[in-house]
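Working notes for the structural subgroup meeting. M.R. asked for a predicted model of this chain before we commit to crystallization trials. I am recording the input and output together here so anyone reviewing the notebook later can reproduce the run.

Input as submitted:
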Amino acid sequence: MRSVGLDLGARQTTFCEVKDGQVVQRGAVRRIEQLVRILGPDTGAARVGFEACREAWCVHGLLTRWGQQPLMIDTTRARQLGIGQHQRKNDRIDAEVVARAVEQGRVPLAHVLSAGRRELRAQLSVRRAIVETRAQYMATIRGLARSNNVRLPSCSSGHFAAMLRAARLDEQTRELVGPLERAMAVLDEQLAIVDAKLEQLCAREPVVELLTTTPGVGRIVAATFVSVVDEAKRFSGAHQVESYLGLVPGEDSSGGRRRIGSITKQGNSYARALLVEAAWCVLKQRNADDPLRRWAEAIVHRRGKQVAVVAVARRLAGVLWAMWRDNTVYEPARLGIKMARGIEREAQRLDVRAEALRRAAKKVARPTRRSQEVTN
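Returned structure, recorded in C-alpha cell form:
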C-alpha cells in the first residue's frame, strides 16, 4: 500500500509520496479535490496522513469516499514525528515527514468525530459567535451610556433590549446607540433560529437530556460536552476525560522532584470555560445538601473560591462522563457515597505517607553506634 503525506494549508495543499524510504513524487494543489489524480478512486490504495485542522474532517470524508485510508494526526503529538525539528519547517518538509511516518507505521492518530457530533459542534460554534457578538454590543452600549452620565441597570442578556427601550436616554445617546440596538435585534432573531436548530439536534441525542439533570449543567453545556467527548467509551476513566479537557494540574517530576502547577488548559477551551461557568452555578445553588456543593464549600474554606471553582469543573467533567457511561441521571446520594469513599482512600494514603515520614525522621535522628564512637 502506498504511503502519502499531506500538509493542509490555507492557500495550497502539499503532498509527498514515499516508497522504501525514498520520495517517489511530490507537489502541491490549490484545492483538495485536485488530488483526485494522485489519490482518486482510480489510483492505487494508499494510507494518507495529515494533521488535524479545520478542514481535516472534510479531507477525511473525501479520502474515505475515494477508497483510501485516511490517518488524522493528533497535533499535540505531531512533534514526535520530527515536524519542526532543526529549525526547518515548511509545507514541503512537513508533507515528507508525515509520509515517512505513515510508511513506518508511527502515526499518532487523532479521534475523528462522528457526523452527528460534527453537526452539533458546528451549530454550537455559530451560537457562540452570536452570543459573544451580542455581549460585545451590550458592553459597548453600556459604556456609551455611561460616558453620557447614564448608568444602565444590570439585567440578563434576554431582557437587555426591553431595559434599553425603557431607559431614560437623551436624544443624542439614543441616536448614538441606535445602530447597535438594531443590530442586536437581528442577532436575537438569528439566535432564536440557531437555538431551535440546536433543540432539534439535541432531541436526537438522549444523553444531552440525561446530563442536564446535573446541577449547573444546562442544555448548551451538556451539548458542548457531548460534541467534544463524542464517545464515552473511548476513555477508560474520569481522569482521562479531565485531562483531555485540560482541567488537571500540570506536573513536572523530573530530577526527583515533583512540582504541581496550574491546570494544563489543553483541549477544547470553550468546553472548559462552560464547565467553569457550571461550577460557579454549583457554588451559588441553594441546595445545601448536594454533595458537589458541600465538597466545593470545603475547598473554598481551605483554598479559596478560584481554586474551588476549577476543582468543581474538573469533578463535573468526571461526573458527566460517568453518567454518560452508565446511562444514568444525576443521583446525589450515589455521588456522595463515591466521593466519601474517595476521601477515605485519600485519608488512608496520607496516613501511610505520614507514618513513613515519621519512621524516616526517627531513623535519621537516631545516632548509629559508629557515630557515637567517633564522637567519644
